[in-house]
Structures are given as structure tokens and as C-alpha cells.
Design goal:
Blueprint lengths: L23 H4 L5 H21 L3 H8 L3 H8 L8 H10 L28
Helix pairs in contact: 2-5, 3-4
Length: 121
């Protein structure tokens, strides 16, 4: 097998592969990684519901009570533009029930996990 080369004929160094923890934000050592992953999951669900309905950004904005540029931020994954509560409200408007469950964390766990679970997935 030949080594891959660049367009200029130089040999490429082998790519470094790191096994993911399951949270890309934690892998990137981001602060509040659990919250960022939960918000990303919520955004993904909102965007999926918008797509299923075939809504344009302007139509989605009207349905969600947002401005069109805010829908653009939703669809491009700008997590910092939205609080969890605001994402919950968007989901409720899209006829998605939101349930928050609290449970005791095992004493051996360093931090309590924050996760989003969708029905049927």
C-alpha cells in the first residue's frame, strides 16, 4: 500500500485518531460540556421538526415566535444564542412534550450528567 501524498507530491503524516468520549464538547475540553451537548441535542430535534414540516426560516420564525435571523442561528447550531428554557419553549410550540427528570446520582460519580433523551430513539 502506498502512502498518501499531498497535491504537491509530499508524503502526509499519518492522521492522529482519538476515540471520542461520546461528548465532542468534553473531548474539546469545553467548559459546561454536558450543557452544550444537551443544547445541541435540543437544537437537532428542533431542526428536525422544522424540516419535517417543510418550513422556511421565515415560516419557522412565525411558528416559533422568533425573528428569521434567530432561526438561522438555530439551524447553524449557534448554541450560545439560546438558553435551555428558550429551546424547551421552541419544542413545546412544535408540539413536543418536554419532561425534566431528577434522580440521585451515584456517590462515586464526580458530576451529575445532563442529557437529552428523545422518545423512540
Amino acid at each position: 500500500m502506498q502512502k498518501k501524498t499531498t497535491s504537491r507530491g509530499r508524503k502526509r503524516a499519518p492522521a492522529k485518531v482519538t476515540i471520542s468520549s461520546g461528548n465532542v464538547f468534553a473531548d474539546l475540553d469545553r467548559e459546561n460540556a454536558d450543557e452544550l451537548l444537551a443544547k445541541a441535542d435540543l437544537l437537532r430535534e428542533i431542526n428536525a421538526r422544522i424540516a419535517v414540516r417543510g418550513l422556511t426560516q421565515s415560516e419557522a420564525a412565525r411558528v416559533l415566535g422568533l425573528h428569521q435571523p434567530e432561526v438561522s442561528l438555530l439551524q447553524t447550531g449557534r448554541l450560545s444564542a439560546f438558553s435551555m428554557e428558550r429551546l424547551f419553549r421552541c419544542l413545546r410550540v412544535l408540539n413536543v412534550a418536554v419532561e425534566v427528570r431528577l434522580f440521585e446520582n451515584p456517590p462515586s460519580t464526580v458530576a451529575s450528567p445532563l442529557r437529552v433523551m428523545t422518545a423512540g430513539r
